[in-house]
User: What shape does this take?
Amino acid sequence: MNTAKRLNKTLALAALPLLAGLIGCSAGTEAPTGITHERLVNSAAEPHNWLGYGGDYGEQHFSRLDQINSDNVDQLGLAWNFKYELDRVVQAVPVVVDGVMYTTSAYSIVHALDAVTGELLWIHDPKVDKAIAGTGCCDAANRGVAVLNDKVFVGVYDGRLEALDAATGELVWSVDTVVDHERNYTITGAPRVVKDKVVIGNGGAEYGVRGYVTAYDADTGKQAWRFFTVPGDPSLPAENAAMEMAQKTWFGDRYWKQGGGGTVWDSMAYDPELDLFYIGVGNGSLWNYKERSDAKGDNLFVSSIVALRPDTGEYVWHYQTTPGDAWDYTATQTITVATLPINGEPRRVVMQAPKNGFFYVIDAATGELISAEKFGYVTWAKGIDMETGRPIVDNEAANYWESGEGKIVFPGSQGAHNWNPMSYSPMTGLVYIPQQTSLEHFVPLPSGEIVKPKKWDANLGMVTPVVPETPEEIAQIHQVYRGKLQAWDPIKQEEVWSHPHDHIANGGALATAGNLVFQGTADGRFVAYAADSGEKLWEVPVTSGVGAGPISYSVDGEQYVAINVGYGGSFGISFGALSQLTKVLPDSRIYVFKLGGQEPLPEFKRRTVKMPPQVAPRGDAESIANGKELYGLKCGICHGLSVISGGLLPDLRMLTEEKHEMFLGTLMGALQENGMPSFADRLTVEEVGDIQNYVIKRAHDLRDELIEAGYPTE
Ligand code: CA
Assistant: This one.
C-alpha cells in the first residue's frame, strides 16, 4: 500500500468513533437494533461492523479497517477467548453488530457475546436430536447466523429456520424448511438476508434429495418463495419455466424418484446494483452420472451459479461450472460480487473458485463467462472452451462410470477449494483462496436400487472412497493431500504468491485494508501475511484446527480480529488418518485478538499416540473382509475411514473388552441419546459381528505398529 492510501485509510479510521456514534453504536450489552436493507447496502460506511457471513451483501470477506496493519501486526495479542460447550466442529463466521457478536457452534447453538469482553449475553440451543448427526455427510456443522432488523436467524441442523430476538435470544418464530422428512435434508449453511427476506438452502446430496432454496418474510417467517434447483416428477407440471428448461437436461427416472441433488448448502450473495441474488448449487445425486441420468444431459442446475430475483425467486441466468457433474464438484464455494477492470472498463462480476479447480470470472448481469483458468491441480478437464463456456472434459482421465475399474481423478470430493471462505481485497485486487490438492478413486459400484432414505448406503454416490490403511499408504496420501493459501489475480488469472500448508482443509481467508490477510490452519495456527507481497508477518498457536473464516470489527475505535477454532467436518471425522497427522486435539473456542492484547493464550496440547488395549482377535479372513467393506459404507464417514478417528468421535481401536461386549447393543441403538445412531434397521447381527472383527483387527494393526516403533505394550 502506498503512503497516500495508508494516510487516507488512517483518516477514515479516525472518523470511525464519530460515525459509530451517529449510527447508534452501543458498546457492551445494549440491544442492537435497526440492521436494515439500506445499512446492508451501505455496509462500507460502517466498517466497524461485520453484518453478515461474507461481511457485506457481496460476500467479499474483506474488512475496511486498518488500525491493525502490516507495520504493527506483530503487536497483536489475545483480547479474549470463549470456550464452547462442545468440543466439536466449529465453522461459523461470526456477525458483529454495534459491539455484540453472534456466532454458532456445533448442532446450531447460537451465542451472543460482548465483542469487547467475550461475556456471554445469551445462548440459544435449538436442541437438535443428536442421534440424527449421521444423516448428514460431514458432521453437525453450522456456519453462522444472519441479522436483520432486531432479529438473528439460524439454520438448524434438522432443517428448521429460526428467528431469535437479537437482544434476548428468545425464539420469535421457527419454520420447518424440509419438504420431505423421509429424506436426509440437513442445514449447515448460514442463512442470508436480502431486503426484507431471509433465505436458506440445505444439504443432503450424498443421500438422494432434491435441492432448493426458500425465502421467508424476516418479520413473520411466512414463506415468500421457493426455487428448486433440479426437476421433480416429470409427469407433474414443472414449477416454473426454469424447471421446464432443466427437465430437458435429465434422463431416466432415478433422479426424480430419489432426488437429483443440487443442494444449496453454503454460498449465496446479493448484488444491490443489479438486484440479483446468486445461489451456489451443489453436486448431482448420486455422484455416478450413469446411475443418475443414464450418462446423458447437463443435469441443470447441478454445479451451477444461478441468479434469481430476490423479491420473487424468479430465475434470471445460470452458469454451470460442471455440466453433468460426476465428481461431487459443487459450485457452492464462496460467490464474490465485485467490480473489476476488464479490458480497461469497469465490469460487475461474480467470482468463484469451486471444487472443480477452475477460477471463474462471470458477468454479474448476464452470466456470460469472462474468463476461467485452473487454480489448482486438475485432471478431469483440459480447460474451458471460451466459445461455449463449457469444460473440455478429459474422458480418458475422468470417465469412471463407463470404465468399470475406476479412475483416480483430481480434484477429489474435497475439491481444490471447499467451503472455507475465500476473500477479495479491492485494494490489492487479489483473491485469497484456501486452496488444496485432493484426489478421489472413483470406482463405480454395481448398479444399485433407488437409494432408500435415511441411509448412508448412498455412500458417496455409488463410488468407493480412498481408504489408506498402513502407515506407508497414509504417508503416500498425505504427500498429495496438501493445502496452500493462494493469492490469485482474477484479471490475469494467475497466482501472484502462495504459502504451502502441510495439510488440506485449512481455514477461510480475511483480507483487510491494513494490507493483511489472515488465515487459520488445519494444524492449529492463526497466521497473518502481507496482502500485497505474501510475506508472513505474525503467527500464534491456537488449540485446535481451523476451518472457519476470520472477521475483523471495531468497538469504540479499537480494532479486533476474531476466528472460530474447532476442527471437524469431513476432514476431522472421515479423514481421520490425515487429520491425526495435524496432531491437534478437539477444542472449540473463539479467539479474539487486538493490538497489545495481554490475555494468555490457552494451553496448546498436542495429540499423543496411545496403545490400544489388548483384545483377543476374532473372526476369519472372510468375516474381516466383509466387515471392512461394511465399515467403509456405514461407519467410516463418522469414526474415520480405515478405523482411524480424527479424535472428535471415539476411535474404535481403543475399545476395551468391556466396551466390545456392548458393541452389538450400541449399534442397535443403546447410545442414541449420545448421538450414536441406531443401525437396527440397516445391519444384521452377523454383519455387526463382521464389523467388530474388522475393528479389532485394526486395533491389532496399530498395536503391532507401535510395538515395532518401540512403544511399551501397556
Ligand atoms: Ca457433496
The pocket of calcium ion is lined by residues 205-206, 282-283, 328, 330 (CB under 6 Å).
